[in-house]
Amino acid sequence: MNQALKKYIENVRLWRGVAIVAGVYSFIFCILIIANFTQINRVDPVNTKVINALVERLKENPNDNQLREEIRELDLLARKAYFTNQWQIRNGGYMLMLGVLVLIIALQFIRLATKELPVVSTESSDKLLYTQKTARLWISIGGGILVIVALIFAFLTQSQLKSTFQNAAIASNPEDKGKQEVPVVQEKTEVAKTEPSKVEVVKSTEVVKAENSVNPTQKEVQTQQVVKQVVATGDFPSDNELKSNFPNFRGYAGNGIAYQKNIPTSWDGATGQNILWKVAIPLPGYNSPVIWGDKIFVAGANATKCEVYCFDRNSGKLLWTANADNITDSPVTEPKVQGDTGYSAPTISTDGRRVYAIFANGDILAIDMNGNRVWAKNMGVPQNHYGHSSSLITYKGLVIVEFDSRTNPRVFALNSSTGDEVWSTPRKVKISWSSPILVNTGSRNELMLVAEPSVASYDPATGKQLWSIDCISGEVGPSLAYADGVVFALNEYASLSAIKVGDTPEKLWESSDYLSDVPSPVATDKYLFVVTSYGTVVCYDAKNGTNYWTKEFADGFYSSPIIAEGRIYLMDKQGVMHIFNADKTFTPVGEAKLGEKSVCTPAFANGRIYIRGDKNLYCIGK
After folding, report:
1. What pTM did the predictor assign?
2. Domain of 125?
């Protein structure tokens, strides 16, 4: 009996001490997390009012470089504070859960040790035991509620902080004020459409089973055989054909370089100067126009229908409309979207044989050049809070889709003639809205993608990953830029990285001064040009990161820059095209006003520019 008591006392004292320390530790973290949430809601963590006031002063005195530098320094401090606070919140939540886990383990050991003690039952001891059990029960309930509240507040703090910083980041753009980051695809609380459908789950399971039943060597051989069959048809354009047209988002290979000539540098929508035609687009969309021959294509959609339009690019006449309807497995209810993203954000791709379009609900279809549907299917509703925005790109009889969703992120290729899946490669990345680019490194063709945490390269014919390098964070919107063996990746609240490509990629340099959340960069063999959504354009040395010049514009940018004939064409959100030389000194060429707001990237043909405004499609030429 004495030995049992002694053992009991030793065990209980040890684990009671551990439980007390873990309980106090967890309680302190709970209070700190709740206090942090209260403080962020009472105090502006990034001095938004101060930044707004400084921005208003800068608008009144745009040549005040000292004030401009003060705003930039505040912005850099805000970014550092953002990362620090996010790290503290995330790790605070982990530490709290660790403390609770230790507390639970300690209480469990105390319970086990107590069982080993011989029980002497008396009325008074029974009452005491009942009182102790009741007290422990209520303490456990109260502690559990406190922990749950603290974890909820940690999540809310992180969301609140992110929203605060995003609002501060767009403070210099009055038209963005009042826009809230409302999820484009709502999460589990929405209708069944917003969750992976049963059909989608079954498909994923079947794919996994099929992959598990075939070893990698056999699977690769099968993929190569399919690719050979696709290539054997010859039903795809040459590089020269692709360069002479404007087939993708940001042109040939999606890299922001236009090969067309005699591009105009002046026009005026108000007077009609150099406006050859303009035509209303039936349904809204934020995709950019693409061109093949004498035809120009855009897409539009709303909550009830999705459409693809083909216009005669010489006259503006609407040649045909193709509806994306009656598609197998397409969800019944359309996802809810924010007004500035819409149901039709991804840009169409064309190979001159067919036109390929994808919409917010995951519907993808191919249409021949006369407007007839060739095939259509649903890829599943993307599980992210903006909807599908990555644009399509084609490669030698394949349609390539970057599908960086919350569940089952992957990149895959469909047979452009049939829509059948040729290859699919899973990706260990977070959600993104960037678009793929195709690169010829001199020794091979590579498909390059960017999403947290990496820039990755794939064989576009087979989907095999060639290399990957971790260099980026956050929910990535801007696409990559490539020139002369170097690829450039950036994202807001992350960094800008210049990477020398190859089987063992190497980071050449990085910067965190000017970053973009929407516009993609563009590069030459000598220079890199970075555009921010709040109106700053920066020119870097592409090889070492030297900052050659920085130019502030009055309005922000969502459109991506395009280099044509040695000049950069950059459309701001008010519809003004800023044209300047792609050189180490800032040399303006012109500013041309569309007369309509625009957030889309222009398309180019010889002697012409085509621009999608908020409501109309414009043809500009001499």
Report:
1. 0.69
2. 2-172
